Structure formats: structure tokens, C-alpha cells
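Appendix B, example 12.
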Amino acid sequence: MANKSIDLRYATSPDWIKTVLSDFDSFLVDHACCERKANALLMSMIAKYPDRQGIIAQLIKLALEELEHFAEAYAFMEKRGLQFGKDEPDPYVNQLLAAARHGRDERFIDRMLISSIIERRGAERFRIVAEHVDDPDLAEFYGRLWKSEVKHAHVFVHMLHKEYDAKIIDARLDELTALEAQICAGLALRPALH
């Protein structure tokens, strides 16, 4: 299995967790939205690429896990009396997706690799939240999510290695990882996952 997906080139600033902890309710709502969007993306990929039978079962498994994470995050929202507001665009994800190439195979590869990178960034940040949040239930939740997201980051790359030449996939992953570092470095801090 490929390990390259875990090699982020930008470490999240310590100021990010300060921003999150200063408005954890907003972070929690944003996190729940991210899990919902991850599930929706996976379901759309299953619909868009029905001919890729070698990976559909794995995409379904990932979609179910993302749905479970969404349900758990939403349960924490309910405990705090939080509601969803207007769905705000995610500048991090949108900048990454803007780099996706056109062409059936190229776009598929890029969407899978971008998903891997997003999952890895999520893992890094969930670990930080788990280490800093005071609530033991939230700390346990984010600790579990951290480990799950690391696995997801690997799975996307592993699926591509089964379909394409690993050298091509790894080279493109390196390009997108470099871009992701630039994007992260330029983002304003906000109480959000990205």
C-alpha cells in the first residue's frame, strides 16, 4: 500500500487550534458539513464511474464510514443545541479542486488524489483537536477520527495503484501535495477544519 499520501509538506500552525478552541461550536458545525460532503462526493463517484468495478466496493465502504462520522458529529451538534446554517464554500477544497485536470482518467485520478490529501489533512487536524480539547468525549471522538482518516488517505492512493502505473500516480500526488502546502500557507485562520 502506498504511504506517500501521509507526507504533507505543511504543518498546521499552532494558531489554528487556538482559533478552533475559541469558537468550537462553529468548528463542530463545519466539521459535520465536511463529513456530509465527503459522503456525497463518494456517492457521486460511484454514480459517475460505474465501470470501475474494482473499486466500487471500497468507495461504498468509505462512504458508509463518512456517513457514520457525519452522524456522530451531528450528535455532538445536537447535544450543544447547534443547527446547520447556510452551507459556506470551503476555500481550501475549492482551490484544490480547481487544480483537477480535464479528461476522464485525469479527472478521476486527480479527484481521488485530492480526496487522499484532504483526508490526510483532516487526520492531522483531528489529532491536534484530540490533543487539545477539554471534553473527554470529544477527545475520544477526534482520536478515533484521526486514525480513520489516515487509513482513508492511504486507501484512495492504493485504489489508484491498482488501476494505473504507480509512478504516474505518485508523481501527480507529489505535485498536488506541493500545491496543497501552498494553499494551506495562504489560508486565513478560521474555526473550521480547513
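The mean pLDDT is 94. The first helix runs from residue 14 to 22.
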